[in-house]
């Protein structure tokens, strides 16, 4: 299984990837909104796969750091 090594988490920590306020009403919608923003600013990125992987990861272990602050993330396979 190959992992998407081209994109490191730290590469996405840019001002254009910060979304505030979110339009989402649920945490699942928030993950989708954030992934959509990232996919518009990154090349070679399967948005649907990232959304599914982040939701699965969030279900296993929350990435909430504080009320209203989370860093959803996951590993995805290359396509």
Summarize the structure.
The chain is mostly helical and 79 residues long. Helices cover 37% and strands 6% of the residues.
How is the secondary structure organized here?
Layout: H1 27-41, H2 47-60, E1 64-66, E2 69-70
Antiparallel strand pairs: 1-2
Helix pairs in contact: 1-2
Could you characterize what this model shows?
With 79 residues, this protein is mostly helical. It is 37% helix and 6% strand. The chain contains two helices and two strands; from the N terminus they run ααββ. A two-stranded antiparallel sheet has the order 1-2. α1 packs antiparallel against α2 (47-60). It is globular, with a radius of gyration of 12 Å.
Helical content (DSSP H or I, runs of 4+)? 25-40%
Instruction: Return the average pLDDT rounded to an integer.
Output: 84
- Sequence of strands across the biggest β-sheet: 1-2
Unreliable runs, pLDDT <50, ≥5 residues?
1-5
Number of distinct helices: 2
**Main sheet overview:** 2 strands, antiparallel
Please give the radius of gyration in angstroms. 12 Å
